[in-house]
Amino acid sequence: MSRRDRAGTTPDPGAGSVLESGRLAVVLLAVTLAALGAGVAAWFLGSRGTATACWVAGTLAATLPAVGWVVAGLRRGRTGVDAIAVLALVGTLVVHEYLAGALIAVMLATGRALDAAAERRASRDLRALLDRAPRTARRRTGTGVEEVDLGAVVPGDEVVVAPGEVVPVDGVVVGTDAVLDESALTGEPIETRIEAGGPVRSGTSAAGPAFTIRAVATAEDSTYAGVVRLAREAGAQDAPVVRMADRVATWFLPVALLVAGTAWLLSGSVVRAVAVLVVATPCPLLLAAPVAIVSGLSRASRAGVVIRGGAVLERLAAVRTVVLDKTGTLTGGRPAVVGIETAAGADPDEVLQWAASVDQVSPHVLARAIVAEARRRGLDPAMPADVVEDPGTGASGVVDGRRVEVGRRSGDGGAGWVRAVAERAVLDGTVLAWVRVDDAPVGALVLRDPVRRDASRTLRRLRAVGLQRLVMLTGDRWEPAREVGAVLGLDEVRAELSPADKVDAVRDERARQVTMMVGDGLNDAPALAAADVGVAMGARGSTASSEAAGIVLTTDRLDRLADAVLIARRSRRIAVQSAAVGMALSLVAMVVAALGFLPAAPGALLQEAIDVTVIVNALRALRPGRAERMVVPDTTRLLLHRFAAEHDDLRDALGSFRETARLVVATRPAGGLLTDAAVLAALRRADALLDERILPHERAEEHQLYPALAAPLGPEATAPMSRTHAEIERLGRRLTAHRDAAAAAGGIPPERVEDLLACLYGLHAVLGLHFVQEEENYFELDHDIAVDHGAGADVGPTRVGGAWP
How confident is the model over 497-544, as pLDDT tens digits? Predict the structure, then answer.
């Protein structure tokens, strides 16, 4: 590789200094630990002289680099805890408190080692971005295609992009259309078809056959190189964090020197001044505050949140604005089948089985969703023959002797149900995969990227702990973005953004108050680096986003974000409390020592007692706070599992109410009875569905699940859901009355049609909303349910304009 790195970037000149700093910190920690341990062993073996020599060596080993850190800090105009540490280390040697000096040395070295580890991790933030960038390009010549260095491509060159390859430079499509996976730049999971003459950005990848582009920029001036530069610049502009200990030390150091100097001046005794410095040893800063912070880091890691160092945790505790990516963060990041529309007389499961049979051999993202839905329903796709796939259009094959097509083409656009389904998809912002059998449309599978079940609950918890502003950024279109924003109650939504736009948006928010950015995609890496705190959905997100973030959620659950904020605030509160109490006690001891009532040796013992007290208090950060995750009894967990599984089964049946209403509207006469046999049969099936499945389910929830949830949630938490149960019962009784009236009259009287339609549409809407509310509020209490039943709510449309619009 040349001196200039790939994608028009250069190696990080600071990487070497970070590495050297890390090695020094590790060596210092090893030396001080060895000196402390050897001294303790010698003491117990009766060799007091050897113990003293070991502890003195450890103290001196820490004093020398600490002096260098103090000098470096003074050059930057900062005076931190290192200055007090140097005075304390020297003071312990002067008054012969060698064990205390060795302990301070170990704590100082430990803090430096942790900081160095965080810096090393930060130096690798851009590695994944660089590794993905292509090094060469396939350039067309007069005689064929040659592979050239990426830097040799200039505007006007024609470049061939093979299937699966990353587009090396910005360009326009030449000749045949291109099918692209743009998720690396936009975060959206659905491929896009670009017609000849359309623009293509570097960093996207070919999701279909090979195609040719005409370069419009060099690699260095193309989109992907800009993403890499943005991430580097954003990280470089990140303001330095002044640690809590350094802020306290800013005023504690001059106070300690003033008291010691005054004692020396008034008494004429240097011993009294040293005694003041001994009790002024900043162990509550060097020990108690870091213990609380590290305890918080440990607590967070057990909750599935990796926080890269105490500085990040302190910033997290101060966050007031949260900026969130949409796809993969607020939504599941994968399309899912949320409905099946069929022609009259077609069976939804049969339509799905036909589609899954053809799509099981397709790598398309929508095909995978269709096959997954068929398997979830227990359907067994048949093995197709003569499968043909046209990227961007769909696939076809022979299933049980019949030709089945799945994809973009709806076929008979004149059929009423086809037009109705297409129009509803536009309004809902969903994607349709049409299914044709023997060249006749039989159904359409409705797909979208569902909002995470835990998203709404997480955002409510974030507001409850004091976060003031929730913003969503996305590369998706405005229509689905607005719907997600409305469902989740966000303060602002920004859509159709490039990675550079996201960085600008994060910087705008950061200028107002401390800002956290949450994302999962490669395109989110620059924005994560630009935020005060970057949070990556690491369980399923890109490596680049995880590397660019200060916090990584290791489980695919957004609610861990609220847990992290709670843990950070509690840990910082305990750290401040421990440091403040310790420093206050030290100030009292300093005054007593300055008056001559506390010699150096007893003062050292008193200081150790203060240290133990504040450290024990700091260890409280290891325990969960009252505001953290509630405990759900095992019996309640079993109920949650049971009713979540029933929801999955019942959700598929909710469409029958809307389908019955559609039949009523389509067949109602201008006057007289509605006697269509298909309508009356559909009405009987809808009523039976209520009586036999839905109402028993709702009654069981009311009498079994809701009382069990009263303990962890409180008795009022389920009151709104109980009111919804009553409304479902009311609508059910009206539907039964309409069924009985139709049976008695031999059809549906015209005066009852409007109320029947209101009942059917009302049941569809109320039950759909009720299911979503229960899934978000109750079923997310148990982690396993999110894994087993994580299809998400039927909201949050995905991008239209993909391969199968």
Answer: 888 889 999 999 999 999 999 987 667 778 888 899 988 876 555 555
Q: Give me the residues paired with residue 527 across strands.
A: none
Q: pLDDT tens-digit profile of 3-44?
A: 333 333 333 434 444 445 567 778 888 898 899 899 989 999
User: CA gyration radius for the chain?
Assistant: 33
Q: pLDDT tier at 738 (50, 70, 90 boundaries)?
A: very high
And the tokens for 423? 């129009």
Strand partners, 445: 340, 433
**Residues 6+ positions from 64 with CB-CB distance below 8 Å:** none
Give the architecture (CATH level 2) of 133-234.
Distorted Sandwich (2.70)
Six-digit token string for 60: 């001196």
CA distances in angstroms from 615 to 101, 244, 517, listed in the order given: 17, 16, 33
Tens of pLDDT, residue by residue over 572-629, are 888 888 877 877 888 888 888 888 888 766 776 676 677 777 777 777 777 766 555 5
C-alpha distances in angstroms, 246 versus 80, 108, 286, 452? 4, 13, 10, 41
Q: What is the DSSP string of 219-270?
A: STTSHHHHHHHHHHHHHHTPPPP--HHHHHHHHHHHHHHHHHHHHHHHH--H
Distant-in-sequence, close-in-space partners of 44: CB < 8 Å, separation ≥ 6 = none
Phi first, then psi: give them for residue 489, nearest 5 degrees: 70, 40
C-alpha 487/C-alpha 328 separation (Å) is 16
b/e code 144-176 from CB counts within 10 Å (16+ = b): eeeeeebbebeeebbbbbeeeebbbbbbbbbee
Nearest to 108 by CA among 297, 290, 274: 290
The residue with tokens 């240097």 is 270
Lowest mean pLDDT among 78-82, 331-335, 427-431, 509-513: 78-82
Beta strand residue intervals within 106-170, DSSP E: 136-140, 145-149, 158-161
Provide the pairing of β-strand 440-448 with 431-437: antiparallel
Residue 585 tokens read as: 């006690």
Mean of pLDDT values over 759-783? 80
CB environment 566-577: b (16+ within 10 A), e (fewer)? bbbbbbbebbbb
Domain 336-448, classified CATH 3.40.140.10, yes or no: no
Structure confidence at residue 490 as a pLDDT band (50, 70, 90): very high
Answer yes or no: are the C-beta atoms of 190 and 802 closer than 8 Å: yes
Active site residues: 325
Instruction: State CA 723 to chain mean position distance.
Output: 33
Burial of 530 (0-12, 13-18, 19+ CB in 10 A): buried
Residue pLDDT, tens place only, 160-212: 998 888 888 989 999 888 888 776 665 555 667 788 888 888 888 888 888 99
Contact 182, 200 (CB under 8 A): no
245 with 81: CB under 8 angstroms? yes
Q: Summarize pLDDT for 279-324 with one digit per residue, the tens.
A: 776 656 656 677 777 778 777 877 777 777 777 888 898 999 999 9
- The mean pLDDT of 324-338, rounded to a whole number, is 85
Q: Tell me what pLDDT residue 242 has.
A: 42
Please, are residues 738 and 752 in contact by the beta-carbon 8 Å criterion? yes
Instruction: Give me the helices (H) in 550-654, please.
Output: 560-594, 600-618, 634-651
**DSSP-derived secondary structure for 748-805:** B-HHHHHHHHHHHHHHHHHHHHHHHHHHHHTGGGSHHHHHHT----S-----SSBS--
What mean pLDDT do residues 110-136 have? 58
Spatial CA neighbour of 491 closest among 341, 248, 323, 363: 323
Per-position b or e across 214-229, b if 16+ CB within 10 A of its CB: bbbbbbeebbbbbbbb
How many other C-beta atoms are found inside a 10 Å radius of the C-beta of residue 712? 15
The β-bridge partners of 469 are 321
Question: In terms of Cα–Cα distance, which of 352, 391, 351, 383 is closest to 369?
Answer: 352
